[in-house]
Amino acid sequence: MTDKTKLVAISRTDDMSALDALKLLRFRRYNTARSQLRVTSVWSAWCARHGLTPFPVTAVDVERYINGLNGSVKMATISHFIACLSSVNSSLGFPDFRNVLIKALVQVWRARENEKKIVTGQALPFLISDLNILRRSLHKSDDLRDIRDLAMIWVGFETLLRNVEIRRIKTGDLKWQNDTSCYLLDVMRTKTSLSSNLTFQLSPQCSQHVRRLIETVEYTDTETFGHRFLFQPVNIHTNRYFPSTSSKLSRGKSIDRMLVKAGFSEGLLTQLQNESKVSREDVGMLSSNSLNQAFARLWGIAGKV
């Protein structure tokens, strides 16, 4: 396979089969599997060029690879690369290669970035003054998209959650507190070394926008209420959310489809599918850049009011 997006090889001393590789990746979360495919592809291609065996991974080879980058990538990218490679390596039953040598190398690179004052992280794209402008301009709007986007922006501002975490919020994650007139929001945080549950108390102002959204979409089915995404695509013709059965909703992310695109045999995949089903992730969820899209759209409207 020559396509850089495809898995070049997941090999080991006993010639691990493609079926083993499929079993390794298929039960990962979609984004985790995608990251590990990309990292393994890059690593395997580099090893092939240098006459090395990709697995088991050795600290000496990783050091050589990182030094060969000559500072062309940031420390955050290197750390992500090492973490993905370590996960695949350990899943194959090999010992952890992240010894003192690798840890020291990471510290050296981090020190270099500190000296150069290189800052990495997620930027906050708007200020409280910006949000107040949107609120004053749009608080009387009956357009469901305006109501949804304003609530989504406030939740993002107060929680600093990642875009995907905001889009995954379900109505059941919210609990109304009568004594404070605020919502408590429970969210599973996944982009850390350990997954964790976080609870946020939304401000009265933010809670007001969220409550208006829930009341506007008229959730009345208590059995399915908690399983619906809080922020969903809007049917502009009806000014309502699409029904859960609508073909207009996102079909979600299929890890099986991604693995086929990565070059794995459909026959092997069918064999595994007959043994166990893997459901699609994030069915019906908003597009990946929805938070920025929401702010840009509302800012454009506010400028005309």
TrEMBL record:
Designated name of the protein: Site-specific integrase
GO MF term list: DNA binding
Entry-linked InterPro entries: CB, DNA_brk_join_enz, Integrase-like_cat_sf, Integrase_recombinase_N
Coiled-coil segments on the chain, per record: none
N-terminal signal peptide: none
Core-binding (CB) domain ranges (all copies): 16-93
Keywords: DNA integration, DNA recombination, DNA-binding, Plasmid
Annotated source species: Klebsiella pneumoniae
Recorded superkingdom: Bacteria
GO-annotated biological processes: DNA integration; DNA recombination
